[in-house]
């Protein structure tokens, strides 16, 4: 006879809960990075999207600023267990950036100034789920938080929201990024506590 305790597998959070399991609410905005903070001038900043067949699409700062922008207010969840509610950003949706990019790719590898990388399914960058942001709380995005521009993918743990973004490679097969290569979860859903491989 098998006995299963109701509490053994955990309980679903109550309706309307904003805090994923294992997280606590942070009042500040902690700064965590895999290396030193690169300082990138807007005059030399560039974002590229490279398709699986090598076609390259680029935007300099003026071109990014000329695109339609949005002001998402989102909750952030860091793998180190802090969550920050109601953060206010301004940026360009990946839907806008990728609108004229022809691709059959299903994966993306995001690269940053400074060498950081992270991988995501392409579908997690589309349909209003991700932005290239350049403003936080009404001010220019500070370098320690990824300025002049960072990727913002708030439905995944924050390491997927690459700071100092410089490129997105669209790939036919998945390629692990920096943290994924050393044992972090390949996807990183905070509601499923996907912190490390095997979670």
TrEMBL record:
Oxidoreductase molybdopterin-binding domain location: 35-179
Pfam families documented for this protein: Oxidored_molyb
Cross-referenced Gene3D superfamilies: Oxidoreductase, molybdopterin-binding domain
Organism per entry: Streptomyces sp. 900116325
Region (Disordered): 1-23
Protein name per its UniProtKB record: Sulfite oxidase-like oxidoreductase
InterPro entries for the chain: OxRdtase_Mopterin-bd_dom (IPR000572), OxRdtase_Mopterin-bd_sf (IPR036374)
